[in-house]
Design a protein that fits this description.
By secondary structure, the protein is mainly alpha-helical. It is 76% helix and 0% strand. It has five helices and no strands.
Length: 148
């Protein structure tokens, strides 16, 4: 039986999903680059003996896969941009403290660690963690409202 997530955990999951989607986009980008380099390394030779080729057109198949992945990646990018706008709107709506907003932007929009955010904002790690917890608790109201 699956345990229901608390509103706080739902808020964390909601915020962190941007980084997961961005990672997925970067993985697809790496795969596309690898496929492109594999086909650009293949050259056709017109001189010398003719060699029997396989009935499958590997170059054509690879090109089709690249196009499909590029289309998927573009859809993922569009989705990511929409989600970023929604997350920013949620942060602005539920978090009134401007420093806490900045902390969440740096952590979840720019994917910085809390330690890096603390350094950038010139505060102790303990203060950053405390501010983070309070800000995420504010956002968890969104998920408490959705439950009702």
């Amino acid at each position: 039986m699956k345990k229901e997530k608390s509103p706080y955990d739902q808020a964390i999951h909601y915020l962190i999903q941007l980084e997961y989607i961005d990672d997925m986009i970067n993985e697809k980008k790496d795969i596309i680059e690898s496929m492109r380099s594999s086909i650009t390394g293949t050259s056709a030779s017109v001189e010398g003996e003719r060699v029997q080729t396989s009935p499958k057109d590997r170059l054509g198949e690879t090109c089709v896969k690249i196009v499909d992945l590029c289309t998927q990646m573009q859809d993922d990018i569009d989705n990511l941009l929409e989600m970023k706008a929604e997350v920013i709107q949620t942060i602005d709506q539920y978090v009134t403290d401007l420093k806490a907003r900045k902390l969440l932007y740096l952590r979840y929009i720019k994917y910085m660690s809390i330690e890096t955010v603390a350094h950038e904002m010139r505060m102790s790690r303990a203060t950053a963690y405390k501010m983070h917890k309070a800000a995420v608790t504010s956002i968890s109201q969104k998920f408490q409202c959705e439950k009702k």
